[in-house]
């Protein structure tokens, strides 16, 4: 990621893409790279927007944050025959990639005042194909991001598997980050019917019970699966605790 004391600069002149400055609710925009890092660290899917044949297209990709030697990048996983990978060619392709976490729905005493808690990031730039000699490393970085610890439990990739898969890399220099992490707006003198419940319904990605394949038999669930399930539960619990603390402070 960018250095901890650096700042994102979404309002810089858009010499290589659109302005990333938030125009509405500007107080929700963050220029702290640590916030971007936290959002991407929990990302599983990035939605990537491109213009193809004069029409806008948005495609979902498994993603990861990695570093292939020249600094942090967003890695996008796909097939060598995938459209975006063909579009990239030798020069790359301009894209906008977005990651959003919906952390809760905010129930106010009117739908107009209701809202949502979220963390979102949009990264704009030129996505380029990972060089062939770095492709296997990029694929392992994607795997380590999505399934931490799994590499130690499975066989190495074959050359055929590596050649059939492709990864795009997108620099993180131009990013726009927006966050809401608050309770419901209310006041004892707001004139609303206070018998109507108002508050936040937390939402999170949580793991269900692992379902074995048909021929796994009684094999125990591997440590990486158990650890990922526990991590998702811990992240969800931490977010719920933080928003509960914010609501206690704002209600005083």
Automatic annotation (TrEMBL):
Residues 1-10 have a biased composition (Polar residues). The lineage of its organism: Bacteria, Bacillati, Actinomycetota, Actinomycetes, Micrococcales. InterPro entries: Pyridox_Oxase-rel (IPR024747), Split_barrel_FMN-bd (IPR012349). It comes from the Bacteria. SUPFAM superfamilies: FMN-binding split barrel (SSF50475). Residues 1-21 are annotated as: Disordered. Pfam families: Pyridox_ox_2. This is Pyridoxamine 5'-phosphate oxidase family protein.
């Amino acid at each position: 990621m960018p250095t901890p004391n650096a700042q994102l600069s979404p309002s810089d002149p858009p010499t290589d893409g659109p302005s990333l400055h938030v125009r509405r609710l500007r107080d929700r925009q963050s220029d702290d790279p640590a916030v971007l890092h936290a959002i991407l660290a929990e990302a599983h899917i990035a939605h990537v927007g491109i213009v193809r044949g004069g029409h806008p297209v948005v495609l979902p990709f498994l993603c990861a944050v990695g570093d292939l030697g020249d600094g942090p990048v967003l890695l996008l996983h796909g097939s060598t025959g995938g459209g975006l990978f063909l579009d990239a060619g030798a020069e790359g392709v301009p894209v906008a990639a977005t990651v959003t976490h919906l952390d809760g729905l905010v129930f106010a005493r009117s739908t107009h005042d209701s809202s949502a808690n979220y963390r979102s990031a949009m990264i704009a730039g030129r996505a380029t194909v990972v060089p062939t000699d770095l492709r296997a490393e990029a694929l392992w970085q994607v795997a380590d991001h999505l399934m931490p610890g799994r590499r130690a439990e499975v066989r190495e990739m074959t050359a055929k598997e590596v050649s059939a898969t492709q990864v795009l890399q997108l620099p993180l220099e131009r990013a726009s980050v927006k966050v809401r992490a608050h309770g419901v707006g209310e006041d004892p003198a707001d004139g609303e019917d206070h018998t109507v419940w108002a508050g936040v319904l937390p939402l999170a990605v949580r793991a269900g019970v692992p379902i074995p394949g048909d021929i796994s038999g009684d094999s125990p669930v591997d440590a990486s699966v158990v650890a990922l399930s526990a991590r998702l539960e811990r992240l969800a619990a931490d977010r719920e605790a933080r928003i509960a603390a914010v609501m206690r402070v704002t209600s005083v």
